[in-house]
Amino acid sequence: xxxxxxxxxxxxxxxxxxxxxxxxxxxxxxxxxxxxxxxxxxxxxxxxxxxxxxxxxxxxxxxxxxxxxxxxxxxxxxxxxxxxxxxxxxxxxxxxxxxxxxxxxxxxxxxxxxxxxxxxxxxxxxxxxxxxxxxxxxxxxxxx
Length: 144
Prior knowledge:
Elements: E1 2-3, H1 8-21, E2 25-30, E3 34-36, E4 47-49, E5 52-56, H2 60-73, E6 99-100, E7 105-106, H3 115-124, H4 137-143
Antiparallel strand pairs: 1-4, 2-5, 3-4, 6-7
């Protein structure tokens, strides 16, 4: 998850609280929160980012809808691709599921283009195997 508008830490903490309040979601672990530079050519403030590991009874599509609802409650506006946002919630992985639809792509297709994701995934789950690349987070982080 990430935030680069307003009180960024507050938005991160609020999103984590919202996840904890969902009956079908159990927050297991949270990575460090780190500051990162924006991706893309849009001039905007730096981000705070972290990764939250959860268990859920939901399908990946149900989880994505829940994340979109949380974003909306926290004031997320989708005006510009890679633009500033109060909160951005993505599904990076969903166990070993591979999904490629118009509305959901798992694993997240930008993982290898965002070194901070590999850094935080390596912190949380170094032995987790990327289901498409068949390499651990530790191996992928070491390549970057």
